[in-house]
Amino acid sequence: MLNTICAISTPYGTGGIAVIRVSGPEAVSIVDSLFVGRTSLADAQPNTIHFGRIQRDGETLDQVLCSVFRAPHSFTGDDTVEIACHGSLYIQQTLLLWLIDAGARMAQAGEFTRRAFLNGKMDLTQAEAVADLIASQSKAEKDLALSQLRGSVSNELASLRERLLHFTSLIELELDFADHEELEFADRSELNELAAEIERKLQALLTSFRTGNAIRNGIPVAIIGAPNVGKSTLLNALLGEQRAIVSDIQGTTRDTIEDTILIDGILFRLIDTAGLRATDDTLENLGIARSRQAARNAQILISVSAPVSNHPNSVADSTLLEPILDFTPTATVLNVLNKSDLAPNFDDPKFIKICALNGDIAPLKQALVRVAKESFRTSAVMLSNARHYEAVSRAHEAIIRVQQGLSQGLSGELLSLDLQDCLSALGEVTGQITNTEVLTNIFSKFCIGK
Questions:
Q1: Are the C-beta atoms of 66 and 97 separated by less than 8 Å?
Q2: Are 174 and 168 in contact (CB under 8 A)?
């Protein structure tokens, strides 16, 4: 039997108000047993708010507002009451105890959203988007989570799965008439076209994961360049604090330094690297090796140069940067001339002129935002969840096997196995095919009260 659950849905602590959510078959009657208002909650119309007080055995706990939602038109799909009380920790905890005494039980982490999924209010990708939305730290991350909550990923996969399911059913029908080998219900040429289309769309989703993952964790930006061009000064200027040690001594930075910054609602993960030069210093060479690796994993490279001494209109040679650029063909390179105050007449449109020491870095910030937004526009639908990526990868491998099987003229029985593998993998993403262990793992990461 389905229990009625309750939990505090606002952050723990004292505040102006707190919201306690109660959901389940007895939600209205349990809250109504403690609620004293102008009308009984049992008689309340759905989607209405009622003012009253919480009272038990003649003791008034607080004045509250109770929002009443009736199944199936609620977040969970069950009868739900949300109680807005004053944010005293004593009031919150006492109200929870009274609700439990009246027949409710404490909700587990993510149990409200899990019930919404089980009641068909949302699929699994949308349920996971709820957690991502709560945890979002930037506008871009919020927008991505909201897009997935609205069904961008699930709608795309559902469309592909539905069309593939139609062909799978026709091939299964062929197997039912195995004694009549001449019968073919599924047009192989049409199936080949569909498989090619699905392969392209799945590949696009897999490619989008790099951007989607960067939105969640911060777009990796490596600051690279020769020693003493002002990389650490630039990092400090971007962060607005003295995060990295700045010195005129070459080789001061011997390891990568990472931190994050929010610019125009976009989260960037900045990586300051050791200066690139030829050296016999073992420790410095280790730092340079790490710098190269960090740069190869970055999506944006800030290649910092500075005016050459006694030649203010020239910049240092960038030969040492070329091996890195060769290994990062998909990264966007921003060529930056730092210490531009020493080269007032330098005029090369390839470079973004800044002076990190004076805090004159606005042109670089604008360029970072522009590049980030351009990458966001490359895909209308983006994957950002590792579980989704793994399942879509298996679906992609299966559909490639279908294409290969069609080109080799394999029997419907063998094609059916690969089609079922593809359907199963796509179903795992949206939760059409799942198991209790997977659900428990997903929803255990939610906060209690959601």
A1: no
A2: no
